[in-house]
Design a protein that fits this description.
With 177 residues, the protein is of the alpha+beta class. It has five helices and ten strands; from the N terminus they run ββαββαβααβββαββ.
């Protein structure tokens, strides 16, 4: 049985689904995006690309023309220069069965919830900073990220993405001697 594909529309730096029970079910089951005032689901560019790859949504432009994955990826990379690195981490975490959401208010890229925990039911366990393996991080940057994690009562994950798109995770914790 083929799953019904949800129609969605690219709007500035977000993707907004049609107003449908299927779109709201996508939110309720996987906590993708957020519900808007008019009962649509607003997705981030990364969430939408993931759902496109999973063939759960089709994204259309303002003229109603379907946007193909390659074109969508180019547009997203123009809007978010580290899109491919962040997407590799998002996809890996989602494929492992975790809910991952943006964490801008925490000063991080993402926050991750334990398996089976939905946002609103409990707090996220980790905040995540995706980095490419060739990028250097200073001790000052590392300490700042660790301090943010500690102050928000979350664990810090540094997600290192290699040239093949594989992700390695380094969990860091603040310890008092």
């Amino acid at each position: 049985m083929t799953k019904e594909v949800i129609r969605a529309f690219l709007s500035n730096e977000n993707v907004v689904t049609e107003n449908s029970d299927l779109a709201r079910e996508l939110f309720n089951q996987g906590r993708y995006g957020k519900i808007t005032r008019d009962n649509c689901v607003q997705l981030s560019l990364i969430e939408a690309f993931y759902l496109m790859e999973k063939q759960r949504i089709s994204v259309f432009d303002k003229r109603g023309k379907e946007i193909q994955a390659e074109s969508y990826l180019r547009k997203s990379t123009r809007l978010e220069p580290d899109f491919s690195i962040r997407y590799a981490v998002f996809r890996d975490i989602r494929d492992r069965g975790y809910i991952i959401k943006t964490a801008l208010k925490f000063g991080a890229d993402f926050r991750i919830y334990d398996r089976g925990v939905k946002p609103g039911e409990d707090h996220a366990r980790w905040i995540v900073y995706p980095v490419h393996e060739a990028r250097h991080m200073t001790w000052y940057e590392f300490a700042a990220k660790n301090r943010v994690a500690h102050s928000t009562k979350k664990r810090l994950l540094i997600a290192v993405v290699d040239d093949e798109g594989d992700v390695s995770y380094w969990e860091c914790r603040w310890l008092r001697p």
